[in-house]
Amino acid sequence: MCSDPGQNMIRDAIRDKGLDAIVVGSCSPHMHERTFRNAAVSAGINPFLVEIANLREHCSWVHDDLEAATQKAIELVRMAIEKVKRDKPLTKISVPVTKRVLVIGGGIAGIQAALDTANAGYEVVLVEKEPSIGGHMSQLSETFPTLDCSQCILTPRMVEVHQHPKIKLMTYSEVVKIEGFIGNFKATIKKKARHINEDLCSGCGLCITKCPTKKKAYNSFEEDLAFRPAVYIPFPQAVPNIPVIDETICMYYKNGKCGMCVKVCDRGAIDFDQKDTMLVADIGAIIVATGFKLYNIDKKSPDSRYKGYGEYGYGKYRDVIDGLQFERIASASGPTSGEIKRPSDGKVPKKIVFIQCVGSRDDSKGISYCSKICCMYTAKHAMLYKHKVHDGEAYIFYMDIRAGGKMYEEFVRRAIEEDDVKYIRGRVSRIYEENGKYIVKGEDTIAGMPVEIDADLVVLATAMIPQDNSAALARTIGIPYDKYGFFNEAHPKLRPVESTTAGVFLAGACQSPRDIPESVAMASAAACKATILLSSDTLEREPVVAKVNEDLCAGCFYCKKVCPFGAIEVKDVKDLNGIVYKEVAYINQGVCQGCGTCTATCLSKSIELAGFNNEEIFAEIAAL
Amino acid sequence: MIYMTSMEEVIMKYGYFPGCSQTGSAKEYDISLRKVIEKLGASFDEINDWSCCGATSAHVTNHKLSSALAMRNVMLAGQQGLENMVAPCAACYNRLITSQYEIANHPEIRNETEELLSAKFEKDIKVINILELFLKIGINKITENRKRELSELKVACYYGCLLVRPAAITKFDDAEQPVSMEKIVESTGAKTVDWNYKVECCGAAHSVARRDIVVDLSKKIIEDARSHGANIMAVACPMCHTNLDMRQRAMKRAYPGHEEFPVLYLTELIGLALGMNEHELGIDLHYINYKYTDPVLDNSVIR
Amino acid sequence: MDKEKWEPKIAAFVCNWCTYTGADLAGTSRMKYPANAKMIRVMCSGSIDPVFIIKAFERGADGVLVSGCHPNDCHYNAGNFHARRRWDFFHELLDFIGIEKDRLQFSWISASEGKKFADVIEKVTKDIKALGPFTAYKKMNSEFTAMFPEIPEADKEIVIKEKETV
After folding, report:
1. Same domain as B90, residue B183
2. Min CA distance, A432 vs chain B (Å)?
């Protein structure tokens, strides 16, 4: 029937016999429902007055007993006929589209997504919670496998974002609320008080150099390896190059005195009274690119979700550091100006041990998944170290070397063969200090021997985990997340950059551990998906949505509780005088995905799912 | 079980599972523990007809047996109307909680063990180790009842392998950097040192068959404690004590020039602080007489 | 009616995304199962009203199968969780209203579990056969029949002939 002659038969029958609805006994509706609906439309019948009795997959192919199968086929057709008699013509729903994209997160993924979307001609609001965009990539010294300077390739992009006429950059800001639905979101963004007037500040930095609280707080950009004063920019290349005043340590907020920054700022940009402001923006599509953080193994600030690894003494020994700290030590703009020195006494380490999979691939203490990038960045660290300390020894404890990617395996081979990095397959059981050395006890599983290395510096390749607030943000936006807190894609193979919520897209390490090229690719893909969505003025949707009969609705709002999409709102019903006399449920057709959970929950049976209403299903049951 | 004797005072009564060591090689651990507990105002109710916990060879030779032996004792505690049970020996403690864990998480082991013991495990008995016991009684009680200043002592607190691990089962303190024994020791007025070997292996049951291994491992533990400024070690496991105290003779043979290092049970240390003498606490049963190892100790502790 | 030749009538309420697709897979894989179950497709197992199940019994079904996506695998994120809660409760009530509990069965069948679908149908059919025909419906279906006067009740007395060799 699905062939052209078959479809013509249907069209002819509709015309010749004056049919107003049709039933096709054929294969599964998942195969050819659309074909037959189109055929019906071309003959002037509403596409939703077509029902399919699945006689192939559900009957002829699965039953041996011919008599019984024939009987079943007759009954299936009968059921479809009774349903189609009660089907109502439906028309596709169309909703308008706001042509503006919200990008949450200003790391490399967010930057790429914002630039691509803006270059396609759409307005972008880029929200970053830190005072500068750049994310983790701006902290890196060099990138694998090319050993490009990370800042050198990133900074031009950051500047481009800042100068792009279509991008509204909101740093030191957070998304606090998302309402609405695909094409018609409303985002509330909190702009935290910088206490610096952004319009007046020229970024001269005089306030920073004159601030008397010189080394009051840990510099989080330097991964706590350096200090910063109360007024600061996170790093010299920050975009925008406007400082922030940290209220918690600023003398002015303590005792109302000081005000040194006010005295030195000749533009009068310091504004101690500045308050947090809220901004509401109409948004058509959202790209979430909030990135990752490192597994917290510091005993001083225990992360309730994860703990363990007391045996490595992180947080107890200053020379046991994590990967990002090593990046800062190796970075030319870092606290040691790129010289490899250990934090405790500033000595150049002659023996350095790297431990991979700290937290990753560890069901008993850490997380089950592989963090994907650690094999590569550890090889890079060892290489950078060997390039700077020629007589140094670098050891890497690993479980497996996972170097899948273009030029990745070659990179690791280079570390082993050219730079003489010693790879030891095995785990480390303990690290302790003895006479200024760190005794690393572990096992070489290939030699089958215990090993003990007296290292000067130990670098732990800690796992990538989602940002602290990822679950809360997911609930704010209304997208699902997995048990770790990574955001879920709509389909793991075929829809990797879309969330299951229509109009919300994902980019970078907020979805799962990603390296830079993958984050950038995802960001471009998400931008592309968003621009596809924005390219039309209205959106067409299947009309299978729920609808409330307001006369029957009793206003219990059980439906509101069960709706997985938050599509149900409270609507006031007014009398002629404009006085509200009852509240009823109202279903936002743009948000409703048509699951029908509300229809089964409704006590007064006042909600019906178009195409699957109670009468239609009862008719099917009656014809059973 | 909690008895209210007056409005203010709560005396805790604890089930007591001594274990085999407490009646033999670690007699002084038993003696000192009972005396200290009494001084601190708590009391013990010994499990009637207690038997082997299954820790020695049962858990490597016959899993069912080790599970049944452990659960038999837990069951007896329940029959006696107890809600908790102290296992001072770290090996007993570990065996008992591991069995409880297995039974809670593996219905098939539960069924099998219940069948073997012809009983149903209904009551939830909380098995606690010696550190948890003192933390429950309250370390402030130790400070309050202190009769002696042990401030000259620099104690290396040694946990060994079984007291805090595996973390998923013990659910107590940090498995790799524990600090609870330090808290207890500090309540006696003694100082503690931060050292590296507090949870390393002493060789445990290899003490008999492979003395060479035990001597090497225990020597490292003692030397690390010494090099971090300790002049005495506190332990909470009969097996550890055997290896660290008794094997120092063998250590002298293997490492000529080895200097004796005193190793006391945690309970003995508390007992000294509470004013008891070494004979009362059974300290004179040790191989290494702590009085002679360090003149500081000799003067400060024993008067 | 000859009990040996009696074949049960089973209504299967299935979700569009997992179980219906799983049944399609069973079909394309040419798996074989008894012809007793007829499927009524809904969008999500969350939309299956207990009333549907009662109506199916009223209309002479000997058994009812309800099936949707596995928990955590729902196309609509959470529909099947609501369904599961509702069914657990409803299942307990069946005995109370005089319908044997085992006449109503639940299962999770994903789109890739064609084999499981065939097995479930096999099992449900066997179970319902063991329970025998559900006759109490004759006392309960008056109201429902009045709702659809024009739909004739499917002939319960259809006797499937002994299998002929083909």
Report:
1. no
2. 6
